[in-house]
Amino acid sequence: MEIIVIGLVILAVGAFVYYNRSKGLDVNSDGKVDTKDLSAAVTNTVEGVKSAADVNKDGKVDTADVKVVADVNKDGKVDTADVKEVVTKTRATAKKAATKTATKVKAAAATGAKKPGRKPKTAK
Predict the structure, then answer these.
(1) N or C: which end of the chain has fewer CB within 10 A?
(2) Residue 116 predicted with pLDDT over 70
(3) What is the arithmetic mean of pLDDT over 35-43?
C-alpha cells in the first residue's frame, strides 16, 4: 500500500511541475509570490491533468475515456480479449528486449569485454 501512495505522490508532484514549468514562482504574474500563486499552480495542474485524461475530447473525464484507452483491440468492447492483446504485446516486447540484450552479451563475450558496450581490456 505504501508503494502505491509513494507512486501517487511522485505522479502528483511530476504533474504539478510539468504543468507549471514555464511560469516560475510567480504563477499568476501579479508581481509577487504568495498563496495565490499556489492556488493558480494547482488550478493549472488540475486543468492540465483533466485535459490529458479527456482522451475522447468530449469535455469530461468519464468511463468513455477509459473505454477508448482500454479497448486495445478496437472492437468496441472492453473485455478479456483486450487483456489477452495486452499480454501478447507485452510478451512480444519483452522477448524482443531479451533477445537484443542476449545478442549484446554474446557479442561482448566473443570480444572479451566483460559488459556489453565496453571494449576488452588490453595488456599493459
Answers:
(1) C
(2) no
(3) 89
For residue 56, what is its C-alpha cell? 475522447
Say if CB 75 and CB 85 are below 8 A apart: no
Q: What percent of the chain is modeled with pLDDT above 90?
A: 6
Single pTM value for the model: 0.45
CA distance 23 to 87: 41
Is 120 inside a domain boundary? no
The SS3 call for residue 31 is: coil
In a domain, 117, yes or no: no
DSSP conformation letters of 87-111? HHHHHHHHHHHHHHHHHHHHHHHHH
In a domain, 124, yes or no: no
pLDDT at 84 over 70: yes
Number of domains in the chain: 1
CA distance to 17, 18, 96, 105, 110, per residue, from 118 (Å): 37, 36, 22, 11, 12
Structural domain of 95: 2-106
